[in-house]
Amino acid sequence: MNDIITKLKQNIPNNTSIVVAVSGGPDSMALLSLLSQIKKEKNLTIICAHVNHQLREESNQEAIMVKKYCQQNNIIFEYMQINEYRGNTENYARQKRYEFFDKLIKKHHAKYLLTAHHGDDLIETIIMRLIRGASLKGYGGFPEKAKASDYIIYRPLISKTKQEIFNYVQNNHIPYAIDKTNESDEYTRNRIRKYILPNLKNENKNVHLKFLEFSKMINETENYFEKVLNDKIPNIYKENNINIALFLKEEPLIQKKIIHSILNDVYKDKINLINDNHVNNILSTVKSKKPNQRINLPDKKIFVKSYNNAWIEENKTSKKYNYVLNNKIKLPNNHIIEIIDETNDHSNYITKLNSKEIKLPIHVRNRLNGDKLVLKGLNKTKKVKDIFIDEKIPITQRNLWPIVTDANGEIIWLPGLKKTKFDREKDKNYDIIIRYR
Predict the structure, then answer these.
(1) Helix (H, G, I), strand (E, B), or coil: what is residue 77?
(2) Residue 151 backbone dihedrals phi, psi, to 5 degrees
(3) Are 159 and 49 part of one and the same domain?
């Protein structure tokens, strides 16, 4: 491991605080040991970040083991315990770990977060993403160095195999723990590790270095595309909104890269929830001739297409509402419907009614399937759905759009869009004025 020590000396500045993610397994304990060997020479402040996931009986003993090692080597020991889990256990644990790491980075004014990911981890990650589908960047696994918000994530063991690391801790009598769940065939990564990885190594004992070269090539390609996208995205994607006309002028590969970039922006550290199917469904939706569509995405989000625009938003189920209009109502779409005394406005945002021609009280509700109204000036019934289409009302606004009815349920006004046969303006043959604003 002398080459790793040399690399650590070259890549970590003197007089630096570094946070090290330490599970207690052979890999992270080897990394902690290597860092402790250059600690004095480089005047490093080493902070060991240990997370007790409480998913195994041995977890508490492992935490004690890591803490004892830190005390013996003058390393700061920071501890976090996850007491409950929500949703996907693996994703939730990862989120909590990195929240903990971020907190320690700030607390200790550290510039580096070191993890013990090695060459075998890289192979497993790339194969998993090839099986499940990912972005081009995802197929590259993880880089040796990556820039986080205000620190660098550094994986110095990426050029080593797990066996090399295991031999190191054995030969140097470094304490470590073994996670027995890593042997279970229940997990995809474990099956890749047990059955695929050995065959790859039989073909080439240094196959991990080939995967590392592949990863670097992918990341270099990604860096080039990022420069291209930085020129294009500001015109195509503004204020979280895709201009479909401009988007469709781009080459298919650039279109896909733009979608990946937007998804990365939206999902951030949850981007692993996205796969190729999601990206392809989004592309199909954008290119579809249907003017209004929506598709479900992970983490309670939806992709919405409305005419020449598309965006991602939270999937908020529209609540049904039905109010009695006595004076003024604030609606779920943040507009207001109110009864007023007088106005010179004759637009579709005003309706004037004769109380003798309708059944009181007046109701305000959102739309129902099959809603129809009789348009003013025309002895013609039209579906509310068709009016929304004609007026190009975004699909996300339609379920909250107010429908004004009388007590019998007959539609007497579609605020802001259409007046009905009940609207009265001539000769002031009305006694109710309603405004939508």
Answers:
(1) strand
(2) -155, 175
(3) yes
Per-residue CA distances from 366 to 53, 384, 387 (Å) = 47, 11, 15
CATH number of the domain that residue 405 is part of:
3.50.40.10
Per-residue pLDDT tens for 306-326? 889 999 988 765 578 899 998
Does the pLDDT of residue 396 top 80, yes or no? no
What is the full DSSP assignment across 330-362? E-TTS-EEEEES-----STTEEEE-GGGSPSSP
Using left for φ > 0, alpha for ψ between -120 and 50, and beta otherwise, residue 246 falls in alpha
**What's at 51, amino acid-wise?**
V
pLDDT (0 to 100) of residue 274: 86
Q: Would residue 233 count as lying in a domain?
A: no
Closest to 162 (Cα-Cα) out of 341, 1, 285, 26: 26
Give exposure, 320-329, as e/b (b: 16+ Cβ within 10 Å).
eeebebeeeb
Q: Note whether residue 222 is domain-resident.
A: no
Residues of the domain holding 43: 2-214
pLDDT of residue 318: 59
Domain boundary residue, one of 314, 341, 364: 314
Does the residue 343 lie in any domain? yes
CA dist 197 and 189 (Å) reads 10
* DSSP-assigned letters across all residues of 413-435: EETTTEEBTT---GGG--SEEEE
Contact 65, 79 (CB under 8 A): no
pLDDT for 352 equals 94
Residues whose CB falls within 8 Å of the CB of residue 411, separated by 6 or more in sequence, listed in order:
371, 372, 373, 384, 403, 404, 405, 420
The CATH number that applies at residue 17 is 3.40.50.620
* Bond from prior residue into 361 cis (ω within 30 degrees of 0): yes
For the ranges 238-247, 328-337, 347-356, 424-433, the lowest mean pLDDT is seen at 424-433
Which of 314, 333, 366 finishes a domain? 314
Backbone angles phi, psi at 212, to 5 degrees: -65, -40
